Amino acid sequence: RSGRSAALRARMEERLLGARFRYLNQQLYTGSSRDAARLFRDDPAAFHLYHRGFERQVRRWPERPVQRIVRYLRRRPASLVVADFGCGDCTLAASVKNQVHCFDLVPLSPRVTVCDMAKVPLAAEAVDVAVFCLALMGTNLQEILGEANRVLKLGGTLLVAEVASRFEDTRAFLRAMTQLGFKTVSKDLSSSYFYVLEFAKTGPARPGPAPGLRL
Ligand code: SAH
């Protein structure tokens, strides 16, 4: 009997965790990056809950998107300097030889520099590769990607891995990226779980609205 009630309790807890994760995820997608910073600063427990839910979710996927980024970097020179926007537990930094600047709202690892990814403490043109792995959150995408553009060297690489279902109009998104100073180098839309997009910085972001940028 007690075995059954323990199992039931575990199942209920799983479902509650799932629901709270989805709720937090929704908040991150529908607010600005500053709202996200405030949310997690005011409620650090929410951040840890979010990460438990995130872990549980991606474990169900056939492949973790961050492994794709790891593979990409291992094929290229280890001398490339990387910025990981929304680094989570720093799996990327721990898996490659490159110097990786890790940015997130709360430090899950001592490697993390705590900041809002719309404003990272790096000089202009400081990195060769900028990464957003399941981290393009917030309604101020243009500002966030503008920040990635600022810290990237000319010709540098922007890698985006993002949940496939978030792309309503991929072509409009890629067109908007052109306006932000990024040309598409490759796109892998083959997974129904997540897309992997590779861009090269062609120049600074052009000002003005980029309407197709919505996710
Ligand atoms: N890139 C990691 C984690 C993805 S989860 C991986 O692939 O495993 C998304 C991460 O983005 C979370 O850790 C979340 O805290 C972070 N994040 C969301 N909004 C942010 C913001 N405004 N500034 C910095 N990090 C942010």
Automatic annotation (TrEMBL):
<comment type="subunit">
    <text>Component of the eNoSC complex, composed of SIRT1, SUV39H1 and RRP8.</text>
</comment>
<keyword id="KW-0698">rRNA processing</keyword>
<keyword id="KW-0808">Transferase</keyword>
<dbReference type="GO" id="GO:0032259">
    <property type="term" value="P:methylation"/>
</dbReference>
<keyword id="KW-0804">Transcription</keyword>
<comment type="similarity">
    <text>Belongs to the methyltransferase superfamily. RRP8 family.</text>
</comment>
<dbReference type="InterPro" id="IPR042036">
    <property type="entry name" value="RRP8_N"/>
</dbReference>
<dbReference type="GO" id="GO:0008168">
    <property type="term" value="F:methyltransferase activity"/>
</dbReference>
<dbReference type="Pfam" id="PF05148">
    <property type="entry name" value="Methyltransf_8"/>
</dbReference>
<keyword id="KW-0489">Methyltransferase</keyword>
<comment type="function">
    <text>Probable methyltransferase required to silence rDNA.</text>
</comment>
<comment type="function">
    <text>Essential component of the eNoSC (energy-dependent nucleolar silencing) complex, a complex that mediates silencing of rDNA in response to intracellular energy status and acts by recruiting histone-modifying enzymes. The eNoSC complex is able to sense the energy status of cell: upon glucose starvation, elevation of NAD(+)/NADP(+) ratio activates SIRT1, leading to histone H3 deacetylation followed by dimethylation of H3 at 'Lys-9' (H3K9me2) by SUV39H1 and the formation of silent chromatin in the rDNA locus. In the complex, RRP8 binds to H3K9me2 and probably acts as a methyltransferase.</text>
</comment>
<keyword id="KW-0539">Nucleus</keyword>
<keyword id="KW-0678">Repressor</keyword>
<dbReference type="GO" id="GO:0042149">
    <property type="term" value="P:cellular response to glucose starvation"/>
</dbReference>
<keyword id="KW-0949">S-adenosyl-L-methionine</keyword>
<dbReference type="GO" id="GO:0005677">
    <property type="term" value="C:chromatin silencing complex"/>
</dbReference>
<dbReference type="GO" id="GO:0006364">
    <property type="term" value="P:rRNA processing"/>
</dbReference>
<protein>
    <recommendedName>
        <fullName>Ribosomal RNA-processing protein 8</fullName>
        <ecNumber>2.1.1.-</ecNumber>
    </recommendedName>
</protein>
<dbReference type="GO" id="GO:0033553">
    <property type="term" value="C:rDNA heterochromatin"/>
</dbReference>
<dbReference type="GO" id="GO:0046015">
    <property type="term" value="P:regulation of transcription by glucose"/>
</dbReference>
<dbReference type="InterPro" id="IPR029063">
    <property type="entry name" value="SAM-dependent_MTases_sf"/>
</dbReference>
<dbReference type="InterPro" id="IPR007823">
    <property type="entry name" value="RRP8"/>
</dbReference>
<dbReference type="GO" id="GO:0005730">
    <property type="term" value="C:nucleolus"/>
</dbReference>
<keyword id="KW-0156">Chromatin regulator</keyword>
<dbReference type="GO" id="GO:0000183">
    <property type="term" value="P:rDNA heterochromatin formation"/>
</dbReference>
<keyword id="KW-0805">Transcription regulation</keyword>
